[in-house]
Every structure is written in structure tokens, then in C-alpha cells.
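We emphasize that the prediction below concerns an isolated chain of 279 residues; any contacts that depend on oligomerization or on bound cofactors are therefore not represented. The input was used exactly as deposited, without trimming of termini.
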Amino acid sequence: MILNRIAGAALRALLVVTLITFPSVMLPNTTSDTTLIVGLVAIIAAAFTFVEYSASSPSLVEFRDAPPFNRIRFGALFLTVFALTLILRGETQPSTLTRLFESFGGEIALALDFPYSPVRLVVLMLPDPTPEPVVEGVRTAAGLSYLVSILSLGLFVLVMRLRGWPARDGTFNVWVNLPTFDPTRGGDVVDRLRSDAQFNLILGFLLPFLIPALVKVTSALVDPIDLSNPHALIWTMTAWAFLPASMLKRGIALNRVADLISDQRKRESAAAAGSFAPV
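Result of the prediction step, given as a C-alpha cell string:
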């Protein structure tokens, strides 16, 4: 059991390293400074992942023992980085695969670029004047990233409904899978879970709209991120789409856990009432 956990942790750490280093490996003209920074971040992230998944109980990673919550999140993150990297690689080293992703991403971006949409707001946050190729690249990256986040959210909801996540096998340890949730902080556990869920759902829905607006407002005080840089574009658009989707998934998951606890209480109350029924 311990060896299996360590092997699984090592595999996850390797996947994290692959994810972080993929753009710097695939994109041409990556500077040595960028390579060093990426390598350092990859080592830190791999060490954190290995420690969290090899320990008997995690300290920060939520739903570690309730797959496929984290697998869906990682899959969406990897797919976004993979697709954006291939599109940007195709600008200097085109191939059939890069053209396919570029064409698909462009069509998706145009479909999602309507008034008041998150993709339109990302385009509008760009400073004036921004070259048209950069605008098109940002639009494509934003549209593709947002699509992946929406699909991953739908996949999680579908898995939760069809497989009875997270207690398909009847076992779910709340305190292990929610290590940052303090049950002794006060108040009813179910009410606090629902409150946290609502906060995550509201913020997760608003962030794709709020982030571009905040960037536009603060651009006069702080130099905006240079999205003409391929690495900056990949990680900025990935974070912009991934973080809100993760908060939405977390909100849905916390609501589900609250429902499980509430249903368990009802069953226990009914069983207690039945055991004391007059005969």
C-alpha cells in the first residue's frame, strides 16, 4: 500500500514536471533565463506534489482520495497548455498538427467573441495600440482556454451525477479530503460547507469578467503583461481560464459533500427514531 502510494506520487510529480516544462521545450528561441526559471518552478511543484500524494494525509491538496476531481483539473490544465503551445509553435515551425489546432482555436475564438463575453473582455483589455497579430493570438488563446475550462466543468458534473461522486463506494473521509477545512472553527459543518461553496461559485463565475476589467483599470498604474511573449500568453490565458473553473468545481464539490453529510444525518435520525418507537 505504501509502495503504491509512493509510486503514484512519483508519477504525478513527473506529470507536473512535464506540464510545466512543455512550453519551454517545444517553443523555439526560449531564453536561458526562462529555462532556468521554468526548471526551478518545475522542481518545486514536483516536490510539493510528491510530498502531498505520498503522505498518509495531505496538508493542502483537496479531494486527494476522491478521484477523478483532481485528475479532471489536471487534464484540463494540461490540454490547455498543450494546445496553446502547439498553436504558438506553429507560428515559426508550422506542421499539420499545429495548423489543425490553430484553425480549431480560431473558429472557437470567433464563436466565443461576442459582446460582453469573457473572450471579448480579454481582447478589450489589451493596450492601444496592439498589433493585430497579437490581438488575434490573444483571442485564439482566450477562446480555446475558456472552451477547455467549460468542457472540464461539464465533465466533472457529468461524472458526479453518473458515478455518484464522491462516495460511489460508500467511503469518503471529509477531513482527509478537505485538509484546509477546520471543523472546530465554529458553526454547523453543513452550513459552513454550503457557505464556502456559494463563495466559490460566485467568485468562479465572476472572475473571467473581473480579471480583464481589473487589468484594464490598473494598466495606467502598472505595466501590463506583455502578451506578445509566447510564454506569458500561454500561462496568463491558462490561469485566466483555469482558476475560475477550478473554483466552480470546488463549489459544486463542497455542495455535494454538504448534501452527503446532511443525508447521513437524516438517516441516523430516522434510525434513532425507529429504535425508540413504541411497540
